[in-house]
Write a structure and sequence with these properties.
This protein has 196 residues and is mostly helical. It is 83% helix and 0% strand. It folds into two domains: 51 residues; 128 residues, no CATH class.
Length: 196
């Protein structure tokens, strides 16, 4: 008898469970009908179509481009920093502001240096030798031993001076100056502040 009673009671509990679920579904359905009548679904559909429109996408891009990190201002500033860190450009400014370049420029305009260059060309061509022109040869050797001329040629043959000459009229340097002028301008700062 206990098994029979158990099976009957189990069916009753299953019926209660079923009835609870039915009531929940009925309640959910009533809420759904109220939701449909509220107009929220129409508003959602309207917003969804607006968001997927081309006009909205263009506006979104325009707004995003007004963020500093997405702007041409940011790219210009980043490129300027990159150029300022470039090894050749740093070397150019190091040489440009050096006392060695100043001394070299002063020395290369002297009579002594120009005389040495002329004599060196003669020696290299074989026109001036110890046997052919002993006085001129002695003068050449004396000038060659000059500390100023040695320093001048050492600097002229240095890698730093070669980089300086290479960069003097380079497009990178011109671009650096253009970017520097642009980034330091009042208009740039105003526009940057409006985006930040």
């Amino acid at each position: 008898m206990s098994i029979f009673l158990y099976l009957k009671l189990r069916k009753v509990s299953n019926t209660e469970l079923f009835e609870r679920k039915r009531i929940e579904l009925q309640s959910d359905y009533e809420k759904y009908k109220l939701f449909l009548k509220s107009g929220k679904i129409e508003r959602y559909k309207t917003l969804e179509s607006e968001i997927s429109s081309n006009k909205f996408q263009e506006n979104k891009k325009n707004i995003e481009s007004k963020r500093y990190k997405n702007s041409s201002l940011y790219r210009d500033e980043k490129e300027l920093k990159k150029l300022q860190k470039a090894k050749k450009i740093r070397t150019y400014f190091k040489v440009k502001n050096s006392a060695k370049l100043l001394a070299f420029n002063k020395m290369k305009d002297t009579e002594e240096f120009n005389e040495f260059i002329k004599l060196k060309k003669g020696v290299d061509a074989g026109n001036i030798t110890k046997q052919k022109q002993p006085e001129v040869w002695i003068r050449y050797k004396k000038l060659k031993q000059s500390n100023d001329i040695k320093q001048c040629f050492k600097f002229k043959n240095s890698k730093a001076f070669q980089v300086y000459n290479e960069m003097e009229d380079s497009n990178d340097l011109k671009h650096l100056f253009t970017l520097k002028e642009k980034v330091n301008s009042k208009e740039f700062r105003i526009e940057k502040n409006s985006l930040s």
